[in-house]
Amino acid sequence: MKNPVLVVDFGAQYAQLIARRVREAKVYSEVVPSDMSAAHMLSREPAAIILSGGPASVYAQGAPQVDKAIFEAGVPVFGMCYGFQAMAKALGGTVEQTGLSEFGGTQLDRSGPSVLFGQTPQAQSVWMSHNDSVTVAPDGFTVTASSAGATVAAFEDTTRRLAGVQFHPEVGHTDFGQEILSHFLYDIAGLAPSWTADSIIDEQVAKIRQQVGDKKVLCALSGGVDSSVAAALVHKAVGDQLTCVFVDHGLLRAGEREQVEKDYASITGIDVRTVDASEQFLSALAGVTDPEQKRKIIGREFIRTFEKAARDLSAEKDIEFLVQGTLYPDVVESGGGTGTANIKSHHNVGGLPEDLKFDLVEPLRTLFKDEVRTIGLQLGLPESLVWRHPFPGPGLGIRIIGEVNRERLETLRAADAIARAELTAAGLERDVWQFPVVLLGDVRSVGVQGDGRTYGHPIVLRPVSSEDAMTADWSRLPYDLLSRISTRITNEVREVNRVTLDITSKPPGTIEWE
Ligand SMILES: Nc1ncnc2c1ncn2[C@@H]1O[C@H](COP(=O)(O)OP(=O)(O)OP(=O)(O)O)[C@@H](O)[C@H]1O
Ligand SMILES: O=c1[nH]c(=O)c2[nH+]cn([C@@H]3O[C@H](COP(=O)(O)O)[C@@H](O)[C@H]3O)c2[nH]1
Ligand SMILES: NC(=O)CC[C@H](N)C(=O)O
Ligand SMILES: [Mg+2]
Question: Is 225 annotated as a binding residue?
Answer without folding.
Answer: yes
